[in-house]
Design brief:
By secondary structure, the protein is α/β, with parallel strands linked by helices. Helix content is 59%, strand content 6%.
Length: 683
């Protein structure tokens, strides 16, 4: 127990220090970027050039950390430099291209709209509320958004303005935490390389969805941790003595040492006391719980990988037991039975599940309680009703010629996974995770016949990160094999390091190009101040501030005490009013009955007189709107609503509901025209 406490406590302590360093680096960098009036990214190459300079500086810091590790000098300085280097890489790669805009990648368009709305809701209040609907707990996991909301509230910033700095800083912190985890599993210099590569891939392909990207960058080392917890074969002839398979490639190495290789000696044989893999059990349970608190899909995928690992672990040990029965029957007879091999694995799975479940209930508990006790109709949920073209085929990053550097790294990783599957625990862990992603993808395509999907296209960044991590190990081990095969020339290591560094920089400077559409949208969308960062004419969003002032003045209530019906739902992303209807059913709380609300809105529009409309509002199954924000069209006020049309792609159909203006010609309604909008407030 003392060893377990020391392992877990030491790891958590180092993680806290790394998070503090990363947060400080991100804060300093973002504040520095904000002090200069930069030109827009989509009309100038200045910020792109400065991004490259910052990336080079970050890579130099990481190289310095590796050099210190190899020299076995100043280990804590090496750690601090590695944390600062990897967090500064994230900060400059995302922060500098976005330096002239207040918005994050993709602005407040499409999916980023509901994410910004969620952050705005939890900035306004620490209570777990649904992003849109009044009187409902959240259905989408609130973990990342709740933390961001508290950050915004502490800094006195509105949610929409908090989004960009918080997204960048949270990813910088996650990258530093991933580096800490890698360093607890493999030798430190390899850990820095693996963390740097996986961070670059995450920033390039997962960063637009920041709340999932923080899990993507942690996924690969977490799977190594899980395999170390679950695959702990018993030595033949000694049922009580376990090998250090959990530590053989997953224990930290001394600076510059050979730890983390498959040739490490058994911990029991060397007299080293370990926690028997229970530290890895706790760590895996915490990762599963964190995933459930942040992103349900990734939590399900991670749990699937862990269960598959348990099955493979049991199968591998059964296979070894069968082989021992042939070659060493006396020793095998004294070993554990099939059930004896299974129970320790099940025990570890159960503990992981208990830890994960306890953490998940923090954000899921209120919704589950409401779902069990609510008598309101439910929509049935359409969150899984999306199948783009990328979700109808398997992804093979190792043959991605559009990104040749990533494709080459993933191809090296694929070769390494196959070659080392029988001898490397790292290859086994990453290989099982890769196989699990492909199995999930096939299952996702298969269940389309049943009218749903598994959203497998969203797993592509995880697959890229897993193969990139394997590629790092394949490159290092391949270079070492070549070095030994050509009689160890003294300059070969320098050449190898130079090729690796130049390849990393070559890929890093393409990241802004990979994210070009996302960055451009951040400059072309109108922000909460009613401005576009590219200095062009703003959209109708520029009228939102006046609409907000009108609503607060005429209702006499704070924003979060009013329900507004509007089809311009980005208004709710900037101001924390509750909405009567969400953007689409795919982001709507199942307890809100999206389809029923849409039908109710249609019925309201068909009333003949103001009195009938008022009566219908008074008898609504849900809290009726306190105000409407319409668009004007001739003699009508209009709302553009959405309905699910899966399996079509696009999966959303827009349609218009028109309210005759005569329905609001009554003293109970107060009308105000603002730009293209009409604000109707119920008195």
């Amino acid at each position: 127990m003392r060893v377990l406490v020391r392992q877990v406590g030491g790891g958590l302590g180092e993680a806290v220090l790394a998070a503090v360093v990363a947060a400080a680096v991100a804060a300093v960098g973002l504040v520095a970027f904000a002090t200069v009036q930069w030109p827009a990214f989509n009309s100038s190459n200045v910020t792109r050039a400065l991004t490259t300079v910052g990336q080079v500086a970050s890579v130099v810091v990481l190289i310095a950390a590796v050099v210190l590790v190899r020299m076995r000098r100043w280990p804590w300085l090496a750690k601090a430099l590695s944390w600062a280097g990897i967090s500064s890489f994230v900060t400059v790669t995302l922060g500098m291209p976005l330096g002239a805009t207040e918005l994050y990648l993709f602005g407040v368009s499409v999916d980023q709209e509901f994410r910004t709305e969620y952050l705005t809701r939890l900035t306004d209040s620490a209570a777990l509320h649904d992003m849109t609907y009044a009187d409902l707990p959240p259905f989408y996991p609130a973990g990342w958004f709740w933390i961001g909301g508290r950050v915004g509230n502490l800094l006195g910033m509105p949610g929409w303005e908090t989004f960009k700095p918080y997204a960048i800083a949270s990813l910088a912190v996650a990258a530093a935490l991933a580096l800490v985890l890698w360093s607890k599993l493999i030798r430190t210099d390899w850990a820095i390389a693996a963390a740097a590569a996986t961070t670059a891939v995450t920033v390039a392909f997962a960063s637009p969805e920041a709340y999932s990207a923080v899990l993507v960058v942690l996924f690969a080392p977490a799977m190594l941790l899980a395999w170390g917890a679950l695959y702990r074969p018993v030595e033949s002839g000694d049922a009580g003595a376990r090998t250090s398979a959990g530590e053989a490639e997953t224990a930290p190495a001394t600076s510059g040492g050979s730890g983390g290789t498959s040739g490490r000696r058994d911990a029991a044989a060397t007299g080293v006391r370990t926690a028997g893999g229970w530290g890895a059990v706790i760590g895996t349970g915490m990762f599963l719980g964190l995933s459930a608190m942040f992103y349900s899909l990734f939590a399900g995928v991670a749990a699937f990988v862990v269960v598959l690992m348990a099955v493979v672990s049991w199968g591998a040990q059964l296979w070894q037991r069968r082989a021992d029965a042939v070659h060493r029957p006396r020793a095998a007879a004294s070993g554990p039975s099939a059930l004896g091999l299974l129970w320790p694995i099940l025990a570890r799975l159960i503990v992981m599940g208990m830890i994960a479940g306890a953490l998940a209930l923090i954000v899921w508990g209120p919704w589950l309680l409401k779902a069990l006790t609510s008598s309101l109709p439910k929509s049935g949920g359409t969150a899984l009703h999306y199948l783009p073209e990328s979700g109808a085929r398997l992804s093979f990053p190792m043959f991605d010629f559009a990104e040749p550097l990533l494709g080459a790294l993933c191809l090296i990783g694929t070769v390494w996974l196959v070659l080392r599957a029988g001898s490397s625990r790292r290859a086994q862990a990453l290989g099982i995770a890769v196989v699990a992603i492909y199995l999930w993808s096939l299952a996702s395509m298969a269940v389309t016949a049943a009218g749903t999907t598994g959203l497998a296209f969203r797993l592509e960044p995880i697959l890229q990160v897993l193969l990139a991590a394997a590629g790092v190990f394949g490159f290092v081990e391949g270079a070492r094999a070549i070095y030994q095969a050509i009689n160890e020339p003294p300059r070969f290591r320098v050449v190898t390091a130079a090729v690796a560094a130049l390849g990393a920089l070559a890929f890093a400077q393409t990241i802004p190009s990979i994210l070009n559409t996302e960055i451009t949208t951040a400059y072309t969308d109108t922000d909460g101040n009613g401005e576009r960062a590219d200095k062009r004419s703003p959209s109708a969003v520029s009228h939102y501030r006046k609409i907000d002032e009108t609503l607060t003045a005429q209702t006499g209530r704070p924003r979060d005490a009013s329900v507004v019906l509007t089809a311009d739902t980005s208004f709710l992303a900037y101001y924390p009013y509750y909405g009567f209807q969400a953007l689409t059913s795919h982001y709507a709380n199942p307890l809100a009955d999206f389809a029923g609300r849409s039908a109710e809105i249609k019925r309201w529009s068909e009333r003949q007189t103001p009195a009938e409309l008022l009566d219908a509002l008074a008898h609504s199954p849900w809290r009726a709107p306190d105000a409407f924000v319409f668009r004007r069209s001739g003699d009508s006020y209009t709302l553009r609503l959405a309905e699910d049309v899966y399996p079509n792609d696009p999966n959303v159909r827009r349609y218009t509901v028109s309210f005759p203006k005569t329905l609001f010609e009554d003293p109970h309604f107060r009308l105000t025209d603002i730009g293209p909008f009409t604000v109707v407030v119920r008195r």
